[in-house]
Structure formats: structure tokens, C-alpha cells
């Protein structure tokens, strides 16, 4: 993972750079996000033909330095995910939210036998695994097509003055979205099949 391919979206050209820093093991089927400080954060994946987890599981690539610099991130937390491959990740504020994918079972990452049914949250401001997102008023999450009625909102949802987005809430919303996609797919398939018979 030392040779980094770079695509310039302004002029449509490719270049490459040799990254320096910690040794980051080769991997496939991992998830990555770009945080607000210009660090690409990668987690998980698989190595050796999907039979082992790569080392280290968590790493960052500093795109602010030239050449780019890899850093291995060590962690020991009850909130940390197990080795995962095929998972997805999104960045919400400083939080990398990891969901789906497959765990490592019997020396194999397999979606059929070891699906991941949990959601994991990494605070990318200090690279610690957490159980919930706190202080959501600083995340500036505004649904598409709407605008805030008050540009400087205040929240007081709890006695401590912070609100929480919990893992069950995220899981519920994800399940609802998944159910909607499945239903829409079934309707689309039925519609296509009935139109091809006519």
C-alpha cells in the first residue's frame, strides 16, 4: 500500500506517489473515509485470499504531507469492531460509522456464515471507538431540500445539555431504509416481468 494512485478531478489525469510512514498490510474489501483534517481513514478488509485480517486493522493516510504518510492506529476498546470485510463506512461529523459486511469465521470472511449485524462508531478526532455520537448540534446535519429555520440552534434534550444518536436508532433507520429498498426492488421486478409478457 505504499504506491498511491491519485486521480486529479480538475484535469482528469492520473499520477502516483510513494507513501512513507508505517507499514500497512495489503488488503481488499476494506472501507475508507476522508475526514475533515485531510486524513484518509481505513478500517478492516481481508488479506491472503480472504483468509486473514490485514495488519493493522485501522490506519490513516495523511494527505496534507508530501509524500503522503501512513500511520498505524492501535486500539483496545470494548466498542471496537471485530475483523470485518465487505463492510461500508460513512463519515458524520468526526464520526466514522461502520456497518454491514462479514466477520472472520473459520479462517474465512463469508457473508453467509458470519454477517455483521452491528454498527460501530470511530471518533476520528482522537481515533477511539465509541458507543454513541454525542453533541449532535455540532454535526450540522440538514436533510436535503430543507434549510434550517434557526441558523444557530440550541439543544437541551438531556439534563447534561447534549443529545445522543444511539446505535439502536442508527440500526433502526438503516433497517427501515433496507426494507424500503427491498420493497421497491420487488415492485420493480414485478413491473418489468409483467411488461415483458405483454
Structure summary:
Keywords: Membrane, Transmembrane, Transmembrane helix. This protein is an alpha+beta fold and 198 residues long.
Note the quaternary state here.
single chain
What structural category do the secondary elements indicate?
alpha+beta
Low-confidence stretches: 142-163
Mean pLDDT: 85
- At CATH level 2, the architecture of the domain at 3-130 is 6 Propeller
- Which fold name is given in CATH as the topology of the domain at 3-130? Neuraminidase
CATH class wording of the domain at 3-130? Mainly Beta
Taking all Cα atoms into account, the compactness measure Rg is 20 Å
Quickly count the helices: 1
Instruction: Assign an overall shape.
Output: globular
The spatial strand order of the largest sheet comes to 3-7-6-5-4
Number of strands: 15
* Helical residue percent band: 10-25%
CATH H-level superfamily title of the domain at 3-130: Kelch-type beta propeller
Beta-strand percentage?
A: 25-35%
One letter per element, helices H and strands E, the order comes to EEEEEEEEEEEEEEEH
Report the end-to-end length measured between terminal Cα atoms: 53 Å
What about the largest sheet? Answer: 5 strands, mixed
Characterization of this structure:
Keywords: Membrane, Transmembrane, Transmembrane helix. InterPro entries: Gal_Oxase/kelch_b-propeller (IPR011043), Kelch-typ_b-propeller (IPR015915). The chain crosses the membrane at residues 169-193. The structure is a single chain. With 198 residues, the chain is of the alpha+beta class. It has a domain at 3-130: Neuraminidase, CATH 2.120.10.80. A hairpin with a 4-residue loop joins β12 (119-123) and β13. The protein has a five-stranded mixed beta sheet, with no helix packed on it. Strands 9-10-12-13 form a four-stranded antiparallel beta sheet, covered by helices on one side. A two-stranded antiparallel sheet has the order 1-2. It has one helix spanning 167-197; strands at residues 3-8, 13-18, 20-21, 31-34, 39-43, 58-62, 69-73, 84-85, 88-92, 95-99, 102-103, 119-123, 128-130, 132-134, 164-166. The protein contains one helix and 15 strands, in the order βββββββββββββββα.
Amino acid at each position: 500500500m505504499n504506491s498511491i494512485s491519485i486521480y486529479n478531478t480538475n484535469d482528469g489525469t492520473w499520477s502516483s506517489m510513494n507513501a512513507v510512514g508505517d507499514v500497512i498490510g495489503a488488503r481488499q474489501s476494506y472501507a475508507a473515509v476522508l475526514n475533515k483534517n485531510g486524513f484518509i481513514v481505513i478500517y478492516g478488509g481481508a488479506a491472503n485470499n480472504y483468509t486473514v485480517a490485514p495488519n493493522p486493522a485501522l490506519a490513516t493516510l495523511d494527505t496534507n504531507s508530501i509524500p503522503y504518510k501512513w500511520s498505524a492506529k492501535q486500539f483496545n476498546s470494548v466498542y471496537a469492531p471485530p475483523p470485518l470485510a465487505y463492510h461500508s463506512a460513512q463519515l458524520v461529523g468526526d464520526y466514522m460509522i461502520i456497518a454491514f459486511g462479514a466477520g472472520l469465521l473459520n479462517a474465512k470472511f463469508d457473508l453467509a456464515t458470519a454477517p455483521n449485524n452491528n454498527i460501530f462508531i470511530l471518533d476520528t478526532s482522537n481515533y477511539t471507538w465509541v458507543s454513541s455520537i454525542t453533541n449532535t448540534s455540532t454535526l450540522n446535519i440538514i436533510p436535503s431540500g430543507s434549510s434550517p429555520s434557526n441558523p444557530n440552534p440550541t439543544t437541551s434534550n438531556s439534563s447534561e445539555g447534549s443529545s445522543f444518536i444511539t446505535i439502536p436508532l442508527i440500526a433502526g433507520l438503516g433497517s427501515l431504509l433496507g426494507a424500503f429498498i427491498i420493497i421497491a426492488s420487488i415492485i420493480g421486478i414485478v413491473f418489468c416481468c409483467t411488461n415483458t409478457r405483454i
